[in-house]
Amino acid sequence: MTAVKKVMFATVVAAFAAFIGHRFLKVNDLINKTSTNILHAVFSTQGLKYPGLPSFSNEPGKIYVLDLLHPKATPVELQIKGELDLSSFNPHGISVYTDETDDSVYLFTVNHPQHKSQVEIFRFVEENTLVHLKTITHPLLHSVNDIVAVGVESFYATNDHSTPNEALHFLTILLGLPWCDVVYFSQEEVRVAAKGFLSSNGINSVGVGSLCDNIEVDHRTGDIWLGCHPNAMKLSKYDPEDPPDSEVLQIKNIHSQQPVVSQVYADNGNVIMGSSVAASYERKLLIGTVFQKALLCDLK
Fold first, then answer.
1. How many beta carbons lie within 10 A of that of residue 228, not counting itself?
2. What are the backbone dihedrals phi and psi of residue 19, each rounded to the nearest 5 degrees, phi first?
3. Of 136, 153, 174, 236, which has the fewest Cβ atoms less than 10 A away?
4. Is the model's pTM score more than 0.90?
C-alpha cells in the first residue's frame, strides 16, 4: 500500500473515531454482535435474523458474557429480567456505558422484533443478570445497525438504510445515493448528527483492498482494529461451498503522517466466515462475524 493511500485511510478512520468520541473498548458482531469490554469481560449477542443474510438458528436472540482471560474462555448466557418480549428478541448492534457517579453498568442493544428497529436499555446488576429498563423508538431510528452509548439514556446510532422501505433503499444503492445517516438520541433532543453515507453500518475502506465493516479503538494504545470483508460480493451472495473470506487489519500511529497498516489475520472462510469486527486485549484477539461464530486467538 502506498503512503498516500495509508494517510487517506487513516484520515477517514480518525475522522470517524473523533466523531463518535472516546469510548471503552467495544466489540460488535461477536457471534452476531458484540459489545464493550469491561475489564476483561465482553458482552455478546447471538441470534441476529436480518433480511438478506443467512440465519443458522430459529431461536430468539440471547446475550452472553465472555471472560477473555479465562484459560478456557466460554460464553455464559445472561438472564434477562423485566418486561421485554424475549420471544421476538432479535439483537444487532450493542454498546456498554458505565455511569461514573455510581459505577452502574448499562447495556444498550439494537433490537429488530418483526424486523422493526428499536433500542433496548438494560442494567447489568450481577454476574449473570440483565434488567430491562426501557425500549426506545423514534422515526429517525428507522433502520438502526450499530450504537454507541454516551450516557445513561443517550447514544449515537447508525441507520444502514436510507429508508425502511427495502425497495426504495435498494434503488438508492443502485444509484449510489449517500442518504444514510447517524442519529443522536437523548431525552433532551433527537437529531441527525451526520449524513451523506451510502450505508452507515461502520466504516468503509479507502485503498486497503477490503470492505471494512466495523472499527474498534484500543483505548490504551490508540490503535485501530478493523474487521474486513476482502470480497464483499461473496458476503452478499452467501454460498456455503465458497464461503466469504475474513480479514483483520490493525492501524498503528493513526495520528502520525505515516500510519502503519498491518494484516493481522486472514482466512479464506474455512475457519470463520465474514469477519466484521476485531479487538485486542492482553495479547488476545477476538474476531466477530456477521452471521457465524466468533474466534478467540492468541497474538504472537
1. 26
2. -65, -45
3. 174
4. no
Among 40, 70, 92, 255, the active-site one is 92
Residue 132 makes CB contacts below 8 A (sequence gap 6+) with 80, 81, 82, 83, 84, 120, 121, 122
Q: Degrees (nearest 5) of the Cα angle 92, 95, 99? A: 150
The residues, ordered by sequence, that sit 6+ positions from 3 with a Cβ below 8 Å of its Cβ are 258
Give the rounded distance of the alpha carbon of 140 from its chain centre. 19
Would strands 79-81 and 129-136 be described as parallel, antiparallel, or unpaired? parallel
Contact predicate 266/228, CB 8 Å: no
Q: Which residue has the cell 436510507?
A: 162
Q: Residue 162 has which C-alpha cell?
A: 436510507
Task: Give per-residue pLDDT as tens, 240-268.
Answer: 889 999 999 998 887 777 788 899 999 99
CA 99/CA 247 separation, integer angstroms: 34
Cα-Cα-Cα-Cα dihedral sign, residues 280, 283, 284, 288: positive
Question: Can you tell me the distance from the alpha carbon of 44 to that of 123, in angstroms, rounded to the nearest whole number?
Answer: 15
CA-based R_g, the chain, Å: 18
Here the cell at position 277 is: 469486527
The answer to whether residue 138 is catalytic is no
One-letter amino acid of 258: Q
pLDDT (tens digit per residue) in 51-107: 777 777 788 999 988 887 778 878 889 999 999 999 999 998 888 888 989 989 999
